[in-house]
Design a protein that fits this description.
- The chain has 243 residues and is mainly α.
- It has one domain (32-239): Flavocytochrome C3, Chain A, domain 2.
- The protein contains 14 helices and two strands.
- The chain has helices at residues 2-29, 50-57, 63-67, 71-74, 77-83, 103-107, 111-118, 127-134, 136-145, 160-164, 189-196, 203-209, 213-218, 235-239; strands spanning 84-85, 98-99.
- The chain has a two-stranded antiparallel ribbon with strand order 1-2.
- The termini are far apart.
- It binds heme C (HEC) (3 copies).
- One heme C is lined by residues 41, 44-45, 51-52, 55, 60, 101, 103, 105-107, 150-152, 160, 196-200, 202, 229.
Length: 243
């Protein structure tokens, strides 16, 4: 009885370690392309674009200046892990990190994605927009194949929550949490997700809704795996227009 319990416990520990290790390795392997910074996400950050507007409202977008107030903090690897993006990864112009929690902190290095959007198959600026209209599912594939990811669909995270837990914590006793927050501060995932949720209604959503089971099977690697992504959109997101 006693012994059994120890064995079970041991297995749990081992599989946990392998799992986090695998996750880490996958995230490392995924770095085929450089991080380019928010300047590469100019379209999304232009006036009237829903996800950009949502982003600017969040402290993610100015947490670096706001929270790392001393030179010491600004140079502290411990703080940069969560209050900056791509620390210790390969970034355009050899920058050591990008300030704030930028788009790429959650959507992956954008070098190739930017290229696809701006000059799809070497055919210039409008080529990708035409593809988006003609075959939105293939357009999604092209973007995801270029290294873009959205937690809960593709990329190294199976669920959105798993991605948030890179920098957030649910247990006040966690050892890898922010040393500057109130001792009892923890993430309430439901509330946190709702606040940060920046999905809006795109052509692709209509396409997916009408897909046959056969097509769903064919495109399964490009469809929502986290149920949360099927939850209703914010009212403001339904009205969103500009892209
Ligand atoms: C594991 C990720 C992580 C690390 C490491 C981290 N932070 Fe944070 N920090 C956060 C998160 C998430 C919050 C918001 C927490 C909340 O309000 O629930 C935060 C909040 C803060 C706040 C606001 C606290 C408050 O309650 O008003 C300050 C200041 C801060 N961080 C500074 C730092 C500094 C300085 C370092 C390095 C010594 C650091 N953080 C390291 C994730 C992190
Ligand atoms: C903290 C992580 C995080 C950051 C930062 C972030 N995103 Fe997202 N993004 C997500 C997650 C998770 C989803 C899927 C569900 C959601 O909206 O939360 C998503 C979904 C999206 C979608 C799909 C929307 C849809 O209609 O299905 C777009 C487009 C997007 N993000 C663009 C951006 C842009 C542009 C930025 C920067 C201005 C950005 N994201 C910053 C995590 C993030
Ligand atoms: C790269 C690290 C990182 C990741 C990944 C991350 N966060 Fe954060 N988040 C932070 C930091 C740092 C803060 C603290 C901001 C502050 O108070 O300055 C924060 C704060 C927040 C806040 C409160 C700030 C506000 O404006 O209301 C929300 C909501 C939030 N995060 C949602 C999410 C969600 C949802 C995810 C997963 C999709 C996520 N975060 C993933 C680093 C991260």
């Amino acid at each position: 009885m006693h012994r059994g319990r120890i064995v079970v416990c041991g297995v749990a520990v081992i599989s946990f370690l392998t799992f986090s290790q695998a996750n880490w390795v996958r995230a490392e392997e995924a770095q085929k392309y450089l991080y380019v910074g928010n300047a590469g996400c100019k379209c999304h950050l232009s006036k009237g674009c829903f996800e950009g507007d949502e982003y600017k409202e969040r402290l993610h977008s100015h947490t670096f200046e706001e929270r790392l107030t001393t030179e010491q903090d600004k140079n502290n690897p411990e703080c940069l892990k969560c209050h900056a993006t791509a620390y210790k990864k390969k970034i355009k112009d050899n920058k050591p990190y990008l300030e704030d929690v930028q788009c790429e902190a959650c959507h992956g290095p954008g070098e190739k994605y930017e290229e696809v959007k701006k000059n799809y198959k070497g055919k210039g600026k409008d080529a990708f927009n035409e593809l988006l209209k003609k075959d939105p599912m293939l357009a999604r594939k092209e973007q995801f194949d270029a290294g873009l990811y959205t937690a809960g669909i593709n990329g190294p995270y199976k669920t959105i929550k798993e991605q948030c837990l890179e920098c957030h914590w649910e247990d006040a006793k966690a050892t890898n949490k922010c040393p500057k927050t109130k001792p009892d501060a923890v993430m309430n995932f439901k509330e946190t997700f709702e606040k940060d949720d920046h999905r809006d209604h795109d052509t692709i959503d209509d396409v997916i809704e009408k897909m046959s089971p056969a097509d769903k099977a064919k495109w399964k690697d490009y469809l929502e795996k986290d149920e949360l992504l099927l939850s209703p959109l914010k009212p403001a997101a339904k009205k969103a227009k500009k892209k």
